[in-house]
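2024-03-11 09:14:02 INFO receiving multi-entity request
2024-03-11 09:14:02 INFO entity count = two
2024-03-11 09:14:03 INFO echoing inputs for audit
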Amino acid sequence: MGRYDFRPQRVFQTASQLLAVEHSARRATPPPWFDIVAKTPPSQVLIRPLQRTQPARRGRKPSRLFQPMPIVYPEDKLRAEFFGDHPWELARPKVVLEGDGNDAMHWDWSRIQQPGKRLDGESVVQRQFWLMQYQGLGKNEAYDKARKEFYKYRHLEDIERRVANEEAQATGAYFGPGPLEYGMKLEDRKWEAWKKWATKEIEQRKQLESAVYSGSETDEDSVDAPADPEALGEEPEEPIAAV
Amino acid sequence: MIIRQLALRQGRRSLAPQWRSARRWMSSEVDSISSSMQNSLNETHSIESMLNSLPGERVQPIDDETHQTADTENIGTVFAEFKRQRELQKPLGAIVTPHYEPHTLVTNPPRPSDISLELLLASQAHMGHSTSLWNPGNARYIFGIRDGIHIISLDQTAAHLRRAARVVTAVAERAGLILFVGTRPGQDRAVVKAAELSGGCHLFDRWVAGGITNGTQILGRGKVKVVDEFDQEVPGFEEQLVERASVKPDLVVCLNPMENYVLLHECALNNIPTIGIIDTNANPLWVTYPIPANDDSLRCVQVICGILGRAGEEGKTRRLAAAQAGNITFTPADGFVMPGEEKTEQQKLPRVLKLGASIEELEKQDAMGNRPLKKDPLPRNFIEGEVRERVPRFHDAKKDL
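2024-03-11 09:21:47 INFO inference complete, emitting structure
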C-alpha cells in the first residue's frame, strides 16, 4: 500500500502487464478502454507549481513557496469602505445567480443604474471605480459622487414603493394586518383571557368572604379541596390569608 | 347581438308614451317597484324564449375510460381554430430575453463542444473549500485564495473535463459499460440522464461495498442480457449466462468521490479507470482522470455530468452508425457460442497475432485464416503487450464459419 496509492493512475500499465501474462495463457482480451487510455493518459498528479519567489535573506529559509496566493482586486478597498460606512446594506437580500457567465460585461458603469441589476452597494463600488478610471476623479471625490447618486435613486425607489402602495389601497387592495395590528390582536386575546380568569377569582373570593362573616358552610367546589374531611366542619380562616 | 338587444330595449322605452312616466310621477313608490319587477320578469321571459328558440344541442355523454365525448367530428376544426388563434397571438406580449433555466441542464445538457470558462464560472465550478481543508495534492488545480476559500483554476477544469469527455466518448464507441455514480441528494436526475444518453448504468442511492470485488454474491441475481451490435437483445443465451461472472463496469464516472471511496478503491483493485470531480479537499489519487471542480454545487455537477453524458451519447451514436455500415467497433465478449451451435476449434484456441506488425502482415495472416479483415478501430500498434484476434462476431458468425 504505502503512503500513496497510484493504482488508479496506472490502470494502463497494469492492464498491459496483465495482457502479456494472459497472452501466454491464450486468454488475452484488451478492455474497451485500453487504446484510448494509451492515447490520452491521465495528467500528472501531485504537482506543486512554484507560487512565489522570495529574496534570499541571511539566516532565513524561504517558506510558503508552494502555497496558493491570495487574489486581490483594486475594488476590494472601495468595497470595504462603502460597507463599513453602510453596514446595513449587507442585510439586504442579494441575487448571487450568474446567467451566462458574462453578466458583468453587459453593464455600463457610466451610469449607476443597470438594467437587470438591483441598485445596491456593489453598484456604488463599480460606479466609483469607473469614475476614478475614466473621469480621473480622486477616490473620495468619486465616492461622494457615486454615494449621492445612490442615495437619490434609493429615495426615488422609496417614493415609488409608497405611491404604488397608496394606489393599490385606493383601488381596493388589502395587505392584511400589519405587525402592529397583529400584536394588538395577540394582546387583546391575552387580556380577554385574563379578564375571564380574574372575574372567576373575584367571585370565589367573595363567596369565601361571605362564608366567613355569615358563618355558613362554603361550597366545596369553590375552594381548594381540604385534605381532611373533618376540616369541612371548621370555619376556614387560613384560605383567606392564603389567597 | 347584445348591443342590438340593448338598442331594441332602449328604443322601446324611449318610444313608450309619455303619460306613463307622468303617471309614475304621480303614483306612489310601491307602484314603481312593482312595475320595475314586472319589467324584469318580462325580460327574463324573453331570454327564456330566446334560449328555447335556439336549436337544441344535447350535452354529450362523456366516456368513463377515455374521458371523451361521442362527438369527435368537431375536434379537427376546433384544433385548427386553436392553432390559428395561437399564430395570431404569437407576436403579442413581452419578449423574453435568454436567461438561465435550471431544468435545461438536465433536459438538454451541454455538449463537450460547449465547454467554456464562462459556462464553468456561471456554474460556480471555481469555488473550492476552506483553505484549511485543502489537500496539497490539488495545488496544481488551485488559482488562488479569496475570502478564505481556494479558487479552482477554470483552465485546468476545462482541460481535464475535455480529456475526460474524450475518454467517455471512446469507451462508449467501443461499447464499454459506463457507470455514472452520484450519491448526493439532488444528483439523481443528472446521473440518470447521463446514463440514458450514453447507454450506461447509473447509481444514485448507495454503493453496496463489494459490488465489484464480490460481484457474484452481491450482483449475482441481477439480470444480464446479451445484445447485438444494434443494442438489441439476443435471446437464447440464458444457459451460458448462468456460469459467467458478474458484469463489471469498464469506466466509472463518480460525481462525489468523497463519499464513494469504497467504490473507487474497488475500481483500483480491479483495474477499472475512473473519472471523478475532485474538489480542493478531495484526494486526486483516488481517480484516474480527476476533474478539478466544485462538487458541492448542484449546477456545476449537472453541467459536468451532462457534458460527460453527451460525450457518451456521441460515442454511442458513432458505434451504432458504424454497425449500420457493417463495421464492429468493439471486441465481442469472450466465450459465447451462438445458441444451437457447437464450439469451434478456432474459438477454443484462438490464433495469436503479434501486434506491432504492419497492416499488410495482419491482412496476410487473416487471409491465411480465411477470415476477412474488418475495418478495425483499434490502433495497430499498441504501446506494449499483445492482443488476441477477435472471435467471430455474433452477427456474422454463421457467415464466417
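2024-03-11 09:21:48 INFO post-check: Chain A touches chain B through 50 residues (CB under 8 Å).
2024-03-11 09:21:48 INFO post-check: Residues 185-242 of chain A form one domain.
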